[in-house]
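Study both lines:
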Amino acid sequence: MNVTPLHPVTISVVICAYTDRRWDDIHAAVASVRAQTHAPHEIVLVVDHNPALQARLADSLPDVVVVANREDRGLSGGKNTGVAVARGEVVAFLDDDAVAAPGWLAAFAAGYDDPAVAGVGGLTLPLWPGSTTSAELVSAPVPASTGRRPRWFPEEFDWTVGCTYRGLKPGPVRNVMGGNASFRREVFAVAGGFSSGIGRTFHKRPLGCEETEFCIRLRQRRPAAELLYDDQAIIWHRVPVERARFAYFRERCYAEGLSKALVTRSVGAQDGLASERAHALKTLPLGALRGLGATLRGDLAGAGRAAAITVGLAWTAWGYGIGSTAGARTARAAR
């Protein structure tokens, strides 16, 4: 961690953890941050209302700032706690079941050479079942194997497993993805923190979008702020066996629809659905046609990918409709 930074900006890395079932994952994530060519200012590990895990991690990672989530249970509270503790000029977020490529922070740092840039997100690649284990990644953070993607799983829906999806291009974006993101620390005073009513909590459904709502809120309060997607800021995110199944795929799509309804209730439908409309109207139809074309060329799994795109879009729209209806009822009752 004594490598001279390629750019002068200081970056604190926040990792949120909640369960000892990810013990090896957490240590692999920390090891990958230690191995960065742009040395982190500090590593902040926020433990979500689990004192026993916090004590174990503090003992095993003495060079890491290990703190308890000071806010409500869930990812938003953990991230807010990490921001409050961090002292770097930039705060970067890494999922506890992900590992970063050695140039991850250097790519982020380069983005902040432009003073207009308020946030930079990166490329998240999946580690499918059968990939290099987390225990192996502790000593060698770059995976030798990324496992095997289910043949029916469309790249356009990689967001369902927390990864970058087909159709996202480097450059300015509406929002970055939360597990591979960074922001100038100063913008949190402008936009506030991540909303505890949106995103992963103790809710039984796999909700998300806390970073989407935050980014939109930031741009609404500081319109000149620019957010970038840089595909050189690379991490690998683990996909457990249960999340590589079609049942989870459908559930995650439905939950995303519910989450989008919460986002639009907070920031408005125009901003809240702008990127989703473009993805649904352009990227997904092209993906379905690509799958059908592959089927005609002899790849029978292409039909499965086309069907999954259709089902995924339908389930997401269904979740959004249910969430919007419930929100309207709540608003009427409040009045």
